[in-house]
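Quick one:
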Amino acid sequence: MGSQTYEYLGNSSVMWICPSPSCGLPNYSAGSLFSNGNIELTNSFSSLPSVDDNNMPRSPLAASSPIGKNKPNQPPLNPKKDNLRIMVVNCQGLRTKKESFAACVDNLNPDIVIGTESWLDDSVTNSEVFPHNLVVYRKDRITHAGGVFIAIRDNMIGTHVTDLDCDCELTWTQIQIVGCKTILLGAFYRKPDQNDEHYLAKLRDSLSRIKPDKGTIICLAGDFNLGEINWPSLSTAQGCKKPTLSRQLLDIVCDFSLEQMVTEPTRKGNILDLFLTSHPSLVSRSIVTPGISDHDGIPLIDMETKPSVEKQKKRKIYLYKKIDLEGLKQEIKTLCENITDMANTTSSSVEDLWNTFKDGIHASMDANIPSKMVGKKHQSPWISPRIKRLLRRKQRAYNKARKSNLTEDWENFKKQRKMVKTETKKAYWEYVKGTCLESPKQFWSFINKMKKDNTGISTLRSGGNLVSENIQKAEVLNTQFESVFTKERPLDPSLTTLKVLYPNIPQINFTTAGIVKLLKNQKENKASGPDNIPAKILKIAADEIGPALTVIFQKSLDSATPPNDWLLANISPIYKKG
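Output:
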């Protein structure tokens, strides 16, 4: 634009638009806006020179405050560290949806999962359908379908409360919470055709048996199949088809001072999946995410409470593929020579010799074998970044369908949900196929995990009280083991004067060759004992270790004094019927 054109437009009474492709903004002249005012309108700047539009400066590529795309203000799915996240899900058959369920748990990262319609029975173990990092308390229906469960993280302290059980699909679990006493979780399911008023009366009876305690938080969730209730006003909707059952549920909620926290529909415009709590002020957020069954949504509740967890220490693993074998053998050889000299030249005890040997082995391993610290993995190994992208795409499709409520958006969401289900199932079986074909050991390890539940020691009862903490369980089991062992009486002095009819056994001497032979026959994949010396090290350095162990074994036998480590053992109680 030339200077004459610019001055002409500036003195006119028209609106004009800058012809530059990089601008395109409207400009208003003085005459059209301020012709009747007394405002100073002179411009102290000179007009722009005539330039080519192609050489006009463009918008900067970056700025201190870049303008981003307009995105909906969606709350993040990742919870705060101090929050307790609870997921309420209708499964409609876990055996056929275990891959989708595992992907949903991995994506939403809940601490507690309250599920309904599991469709399980006694022939199905928890490890077959649930992720291995969940401890599951479930109640199956005797007939087909139905069933409820409560699954908690394996590092949380939970107890199955059997005193509140009743003759309906209801189960209770108690969770320890930091800063207060307990949180009582209940999972409930009512069939759509269950019109008997006595069914909800059983729920009332179970709630009435809860001991009143100011520190106990009650959370009851599940699929109640009563969607014609106006929860803000605590009344039944107009034209309610089941007014008696709806009013009965409202009476239970009011009588026990509970409040319903789910505000968005979970199936076809109705709120069927409920979350009732006695402490609504602790609920910081309640949203609904895409479901895995005929229920469109899964309620997700964040509570401002911190669960008590058992922190698992990371363990050190050695990278044997990068071992400095020659350096390791040389250091162990020097160590064993020093131990032999100690035994011959000093009055060192068996305990001193053993501790020197054990500490030296550990120091040699740290110096010649790289290591790393690993913790327990909570993620399913077959959930790849691609699966996570599909889950996020499904979440966006769900959010769009909920916002627009258009038929094509809901169809797109269903398409995305079907794709996620197909891809997760495919990824799971590809992982299983690849794992099982690698080695027989991994194959049988996978089979054994499917056959049994790895939930540790269950809750024990001692003196009428339930014991859930690990230290308390160990004390109870130790007391039980001690009570069934025979307590030896002191030896009668008269027996020592009896004539011995058999000759004494000759002196027992250990040989280095025999010990080396036993060391080389060790199985490398066996776990180490309380001394934490791997069998692999004993085997690969058998020739260097043999002389030192010969000295220690011989001195221990001659003095009748074993080292303290030899009196320790790792004991795992195994349940046995009978």
